[in-house]
Amino acid sequence: MLKLPPSVRIDEAPALWARLEASLRAEAAQVACAAGSQLHLTAADLQQFDSTVLSLLISAARLCAAEGVQLKLHQVPDKLLELARVYGVAELLWPELIGKAGSQLV
Questions:
Q1: How deeply is 7 buried, as exposed, middle or buried, from its count of CB atoms within 10 A (0-12, 13-18, 19+)?
Q2: pTM of the model
Q3: 3-state secondary structure the chain
Q4: Which domain holds residue 69?
Q5: From the first residue on, what is the mean pLDDT of each consecutive set of 10 residues in the chain (106 residues)?
Q6: How many domains does the chain have?
Q7: Distance between CA atoms of residues 32 and 52, nearest Å
């Protein structure tokens, strides 16, 4: 399972995306070779972030879709879920939460 770092801020985004993109592509290839359909990414360590994290996650989900797998996010902080709802992108990242309020992702 891939992991987000403890901090995702705008000034860290270019370097973080470069690393994350490479990891996502490699992991997606392994998932596809194993006939899997989901690539798992945990946000358990994520503590400091701004809206940049949403951009990175949406880009990650798009990359995964292009590689033929679905991005599945785990252990998402409530603050990030709320930020995604405010920006109107929660359903893009967590389609299973549509219509559910206050759900905790596992």
A1: middle
A2: 0.87
A3: CEECCCEECHHHHHHHHHHHHHHHHHHHHHHHHCCCCEEEEECCCCCEECCHHHHHHHHHHHHHHHCCCEEEEECCCHHHHHHHHHHCCHHHHCHHHCCCCCCCCC
A4: 2-97
A5: 96 95 96 92 96 96 94 95 94 74 47
A6: 1
A7: 28
